[in-house]
Amino acid sequence: MSQEYDISSPTIRSFVFLDLETTGLLQREGKNCRIVELCLVAVLREHFLDQCEPFPRVLNKMSLCFNPCRFMDATAMSIHGLSNTLLQDLPPLSPDDYVLISTFLNKLPSPVCLVAHNGTHFDFPLLRSELQRIGKQLPETLLCVDTLPGFRSQLKIFLEAREFLSELQNLEQYDALLNDGNDELLFLAAERLETLHNTDLDVTSIRTASHTEDELNGRPTTPRQSKQSGSLYWRQQANNTTPSKRRVTKYYSYKLEEIYKILFNETPVSHRAENDVINLMKCVHMIGVPFIDWMDKNCFEFHKVRLYC
């Protein structure tokens, strides 16, 4: 991580997905909040962008638990399943743990970026504050990015694009259009596809992602419609696709668990640090190139994160 690079316009080389479990809510406990579990999972950019794999094979992982040396909030214990009893024989976070964390990060190609959901308001200030408390800090070259505004920016566009591309997967419908001489409808489809390209979405990766979602969850793909229904289908799409109707607003919850449900149509196993990290990685990987580009443009320096202590 000691390599030189232009920090004003980085192309992130190593993404380190981060999740913390704590003694309670940071907003409620403030400087008394302590980390009880930390998980880091690192993936290189080229492995993350490889759409040939449903999920990156090459991952580097670190998971640590700590004795908080203070009583934990009952609600927090019920959520993450850790308790003072379970952690009583472990040491608290110490300079030795800092060495482990910094060594883990230093072995990765630069630029290195921590990635966390709601990281700006939780994971990043808490981690920096805990390290400050033991007199340590991570290198100033370390970057970080919060995926919460990223999903607010990219999720709706991705879902609309995926929905549209699912309409184009049935080649028999193209045959029906050509046989019926529906040039206007073909022009409409091309125009809609061009609109998607103008949103900077990687349409190929979205088409792949629509298959990948079924592969990840072991579901069969949707059977093709009969050839006879193709012409009628596209006429209905043309009639229903007015600018005003295409702009109908859908509201999404941007909690990680809800994003996962939307993208994979199943409920994730949550609130264990490693599970949450993998869930976040899967969601970012599903959207693909547009989200990676967004992170390049919106990351910032970790040492500038505000402290809680």
Protein described:
The protein has 309 residues and is α/β, with parallel strands linked by helices. It has a domain at 14-152 and 252-304: Ribonuclease H-like superfamily/Ribonuclease H (Nucleotidyltransferase, domain 5, 2-Layer Sandwich), CATH 3.30.420.10. The protein has helices spanning 26-29, 45-48, 74-80, 84-87, 95-106, 123-133, 147-168, 171-180, 183-197, 203-217, 230-240, 243-246, 256-264, 273-287, 289-298, and strands spanning 14-22, 35-44, 60-65, 112-116, 143-146, 300-301. It has a six-stranded mixed β-sheet, sandwiched between helices. Helix 6 links the parallel strand 4 (112-116) and strand 5 (143-146). The longest helix has 22 residues, at 147-168.
Précis, in short:
Pfam families: RNase_T. InterPro entries: Ribonucl_H, RNaseH-like_sf, RNaseH_sf, TREX1/2. This protein is an alpha/beta fold and 309 residues long.
Shape: globular
Helix content: 40-55%
| Number of discrete helical segments | 15
In the predicted model, the low-confidence regions spanning at least 5 consecutive residues are 206-248
By CATH reckoning, the class of the domain at 14-152 and 252-304 would read Alpha Beta
Which second-level CATH architecture of the domain at 14-152 and 252-304 applies? 2-Layer Sandwich
Note the beta-strand portion: 5-15%
Full CATH superfamily name of the domain at 14-152 and 252-304? Ribonuclease H-like superfamily/Ribonuclease H
